[in-house]
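Whiteboard transcription, Tuesday session. T.W. wrote the structure tokens on the left side:
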């Protein structure tokens, strides 16, 4: 009975934590949208100075630097906080690939296959002889899948 109560309390705490996280996300998303709208309006108002390529008033000039200084640090900070609040546990994804090759080309073929899956972690490679000249390679990969 005590274990059931403990599990229930843990579940309630987790749900409350998720609700607070979701509320914070909504607030910060609105703040970021407001900051982006403010920056867009300032860019729109300074359009002529930003587009003018003569003198110091081009995209790399004072007008751009002023906008960059005013907004980029705050946007980066907001995005970093949002990324931490949006953290989700990954689901482990598995993938098995088979490759038919010969002794002479096995190294190149395996390298090519592994390069195609460079975002995946290599788990295992198992090579078996199929015929006198043909080899079968079974390659397993794993990766964290966060879904979208």
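and on the right, the sequence the group agreed on:
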């Amino acid at each position: 009975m005590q274990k059931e109560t403990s599990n229930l309390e843990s579940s309630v705490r987790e749900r409350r934590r998720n609700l607070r996280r979701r509320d914070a996300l909504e607030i910060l998303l609105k703040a970021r949208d407001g900051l982006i709208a403010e920056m867009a309006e300032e860019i729109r108002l300074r359009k002529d100075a930003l587009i003018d390529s003569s003198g110091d008033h081009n995209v790399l000039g004072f007008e751009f630097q002023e906008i960059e200084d005013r907004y980029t640090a705050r946007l980066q900070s907001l995005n970093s906080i949002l990324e931490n609040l949006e953290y989700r546990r990954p689901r482990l994804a598995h993938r098995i690939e088979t490759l038919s090759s010969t002794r002479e080309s096995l190294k190149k073929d395996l390298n090519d296959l592994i390069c195609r899956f460079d975002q995946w972690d290599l788990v295992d490679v198992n090579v078996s002889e199929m015929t006198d000249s043909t080899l079968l390679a079974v390659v397993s990969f794993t990766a964290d899948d966060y879904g979208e």
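Someone added at the bottom: The longest strand covers residues 91-101.
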